[in-house]
Amino acid sequence: MNKEAMKQELTTTILPFWMKLKDEKHGGLYGRVAYDLTVMERAEKGGIAAARHLWAFSSSYRVLRQSEYLEMAHHMYRFIKEKCFDQDYGGIYWMLDYRGEVMDDRKHIYAQAFMIYGLSEYYRITQDKEALDLALDLYDLIEVKGFDNKNGAYKEEFTREWIEAPNEMLSENGVVANITMNTHIHILEAYTNLYKAAPSKELKVRLEYLLDRHVEKIYQEDHFLGVFFDKNWNSIIDLQSFGHDIEASWLIDETLKVLECDVPKYHEMVQDIAYNILNVAVNEDGSMQNERENGVVDDTRIWWVQAETMLGFYNAYEKTGDEAFKEAAENCWTFIMAHIKDPRPGGEWYWSLTKDNQPIKRDVAEPWKVSYHNTRSCLELIERMEKQ
């Protein structure tokens, strides 16, 4: 695992795969690519997917300075500005059709957070005040509509008109959760990137509050993060999500770096999460297990979990100096290149593999599989290795 290998994978496999999906007629990217690599030009386009693509191309330009990534970022920004925003009630729609017409007009705080993430990154490379203003408007919307003063949690799902609704879109495993770890992690992620773009005292206070929620409410005594909670922050399922935990470890650490925060309990949480995942969830071949529910492990090898594992362990190595983390990151990269990477011409990364490392025949691009996780992992590692 080295900088040049990361750069080669990113610039010759990952980004070209997504760039070829550019929809010149209707905007954005084509929404699906079937397992057989057939591009489905009339597939739906997700609001979250658009935000993630905007982030990926903007960040790729910021790090690599190649003009084609800047043009793709401009392309995604135009689509988002024209199609993804609700001009009447505010916020980002959940789902659009292939033409950019609204299919599902519900609102989700998770989606608003990701659009902040994308817009703030776009602002970092363009200094386009309009993009920053849109991000700040979404920040205000989350704080006004999406924060519950009674329990100190961020809410989840709403109708188009911002009437709170059951959290169907971000609940899984047979439960409907009032509060999720996933939404809180990605609000933290979004606000941290917004702080990089436009630091303010108010935003710092909210980030500090989110750090407190993670350590006091989401982080558990067994060093896992709780996944789904009721409205009183009680965990409602025996579930450990290994990928989310290792991802959260480095995202939380990034916030600590940006804020120059030296509160010991936060740093201890980051380290303990990483050590816990290293000890309980890594397979002998270097891959990461998916999750554990009621003591039963799901050992599906999922693309995003592997991407976050590689980065999360490398971050833990930088933080602790423990060579075991570096070795685990390198082993995961080796596994990705041997098995997750799609060797077919024009392929990218498979969605997932069985525990025997056989590809599961799922669409290789769709609203939940976009250019975000593996692009970010490569970019982060390139930046970190350049500093060595």
TrEMBL record:
GO annotation, biological process: carbohydrate metabolic process
Keyword Isomerase appears in the UniProt entry: yes
Keywords, sorted A to Z: Isomerase
Catalyses which reaction(s): D-cellobiose = beta-D-glucosyl-(1->4)-D-mannopyranose
Keyword Transmembrane: no
Alphabetical list of InterPro entries matching this protein: 6-hairpin_glycosidase_sf, 6hp_glycosidase-like_sf, AGE/CE, Cellobiose_2_epim
Family: Belongs to the N-acylglucosamine 2-epimerase family. Belongs to the cellobiose 2-epimerase family.
Role this protein plays: Catalyzes the reversible epimerization of cellobiose to 4-O-beta-D-glucopyranosyl-D-mannose (Glc-Man).
Annotated protein name in UniProt: Cellobiose 2-epimerase
Organism encoding this protein: Halolactibacillus miurensis
